[in-house]
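Hi, here's the filled form for the chain we discussed.

Project: internal
Contact: R.S.
Residues: 209
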Amino acid sequence: MTATHPARLWFELAADGLVATAGQITPQDLPRPGLGVWTVRDLLGHASRAFSTVVSYLAAPADPNAPWLAEPTDYFTAALRSTAAAEPAQIAERGRAAGRALGDDPVRALRALAADTRALVAATPDHASVTTPFGTMTLTAYLPTRAFELTVHGLDLARAVEVAPCTDLALAARAALSLVAALATTDQAVSALLALTGRHGLPEGFSLL
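And the returned structure, exactly as it came back:
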């Protein structure tokens, strides 16, 4: 029997966590502040893109001229370069548009999208090609980038609606921490390690993404 790839396990865990957290959102929560300029609905919409992009990027035609991204860290490095050049207003509007697209019952729509995406992932081989805006990847190289988004934004949603993180998100956070640590520069790694071991706090505005 072939072992399940760790990327698939993390994706499933994070998906469970996001869906469970979304299930605690009430209609009254949707217009509340979510993250930055986003409402809870906007944040839910942005998080839903961690599912919808799997579907659309698997279906996208291969680009023979696209760079090959072998690891999740390669994806995030390329995405960070692109995001640095993007207008913050454009990024914010994508989240709002995704929130509107979830319709009158966004939690139900998210559940349906999650179920459809997970079924597609389960039926797709590990080495299937994924055409992202930043380069081409295998499915199992791409899934950790989606699991990371599901984990972090699941935690964001829990904070926004003032509920405790569920067990699945808490477990998924360990994998997310490992991935984001791999993106640290030497100086960032030193600062993070000293903070995590209680030596000092992190500098104001510190972020690896």
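Let me know if anything looks off before we file it.
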